[in-house]
Amino acid sequence: MITAVVRYKLPPQIDYAACREHFHKIAPSFREVTGLVSKHFIWSESGWAGGVYQWERIEDAKAFYTGPWLEGIIQRYGMKPQIDLYETFAVADNTRGKVELFKETVASNDPEQI
Question: What is the pTM of this model?
Answer without folding.
Answer: 0.88
